[in-house]
Specification:
- The structure is a homodimer.
- By secondary structure, chain A is an alpha/beta fold.
- Chain A has helices at residues 22-29, 58-61, 77-86, 167-173, 200-210, 222-231; strands at residues 2-7, 39-44, 47-51, 69-71, 94-99, 115-120, 126-128, 131-137, 145-151, 154-159, 180-184, 214-218, 243-245.
- In chain A, strands 6-5-4-3-2-1-13 form a seven-stranded mixed β-sheet, with helices on one face. The first copy, chain A, has a six-stranded mixed β-sheet with strand order 7-8-9-10-11-12, with helices on one face.
């Protein structure tokens, strides 16, 4: 399995419009340090699966027949804005596995165009070819699912957006070793108002409990980038376009 | 007054994903022929006003203090998607004049961030510095306003999205000469299902009645581009990045 981060940022990722903090100025001066909305491309067993779709250039990135489906964690704009554009297409239908959320995102599920929304429930595993996907519940301000993706003995968990993890999700995650965990971490330690996202201390504690072979933090906001630059703690913070090979 | 088209396309503008028609192939081969979502920048009396905000790169195009406001015709995604990104900003507040539409676009008006939505009613003119803006009702699937912008003796009308025009709008438009009319025209003549947009015959008839000094058609879909290429009728069809000077 190969996971490539297409984005690792939160809504307040560097560079934030109008912000002159060191992290935002650095991202403005060097676009390779800017963070697009948190999302990833998973390549496994000849399949190409998109995890989240907040980037608005997905129509250009993925021509017809270049994607086998989308695993959508939830219906916030920074995770599904690209779908509002990808739907207008004459290409083959594209399955989008997603949580049950009647509100959706504006008219996205009412006028899905090319997209085929397939509602999933936590714990109800399904197969995409030889790959087994198990949705797990996350803790966020909207119905949100993480994705545990298994192929042979390899096992990846993508867990964003969330603050903490429900017990049932821990139970699913701990049934077998995890090769890679990608975890929400939007804030530096002690963020005053960590709405729906982990801060760095919370993310570290969750990873200590899950003990995966490898881990990356995603959904990074500019204040965490600034904290990491000052403190020198950059280990585990994912970068846009970074690729992680598993197995 | 100077009007620059930032986009002249409809939702089905060339290149449509997965479409191999001549217009879409031409736009794919030559990106200067591609059409972004219909929108424009109006520069007048030292002010810079954005008309519609469907482009998703507006955050990068307009740094702090480079815009004085947005005239939003309606809350469809291809006209306001860029606002969902522009709101997360530390720059100065940005006024957005818009129609009364309680539905809005997903959570855009609930979480406006930097944006200050100012609801307008057709016929109730207001001033932005020395510029007078008169909202006029259009005929579309959502509450939609056109904008008549006057500075001194110069007068521009931006009329998209619409199919036809209400009598009251004609009455407002005909009170004084029009230097430039920008009009919705999404389809070739006789389109089978022209939902909420003019076809070319309808647009031509409206322009004949309004008799402006100059006119441009916008919100062009790929089938109109293909029709225009075959028929040789390109006169009046706006192009992205085209600039029209008035006065």
């Amino acid at each position: 399995m190969r996971l490539t981060f297409l984005g690792t940022g939160g809504v307040w990722a560097a560079p934030v419009h109008g912000c002159t903090c060191a992290a935002c100025e650095a991202a403005r001066a060097d676009p390779s340090r800017a963070r697009a909305p948190a999302s990833a491309l998973l390549e496994v067993a000849g399949l190409r699966l998109l995890i989240d779709a907040g980037r608005t250039d997905l129509v250009d990135r993925f021509p017809p027949r270049s994607l086998d489906g989308v695993l959508l964690t939830h219906f916030h704009g920074d995770h599904c804005l690209g779908l509002t554009l990808m739907r207008w297409s004459m290409a083959e239908p594209l399955p989008v596995w997603c949580p049950h959320d009647p509100r959706g995102y504006d008219d996205l599920t009412k006028h899905p165009g090319r997209l085929r929304f397939l509602t999933c429930a936590a714990g109800d595993a399904f197969c995409i070819g030889p790959v087994t996907v198990t949705p797990v519940a996350l803790i966020h301000s909207r119905p949100t699912l993480g994705w545990v993706i298994a192929h042979g003995a390899q096992r990846i968990a993508y867990l964003s957006d969330t603050r903490g993890l429900p017990d049932a999700t821990f139970a699913t995650l701990e049934t077998a070793p995890l090769d890679l965990v990608v975890l929400d971490c939007a804030y530096p330690p002690g963020a005053p108002d960590p709405r729906g996202h982990n801060d760095l201390d919370e993310a570290d504690a969750l990873l200590a409990q899950l003990a995966p072979r490898d881990a990356r933090l995603t959904h990074i906001n500019h204040d965490l980038d600034q904290y990491a630059a000052v403190s020198g703690i950059v280990c585990g913070i994912a970068q846009d376009h970074e690729t992680v090979d598993v197995g």
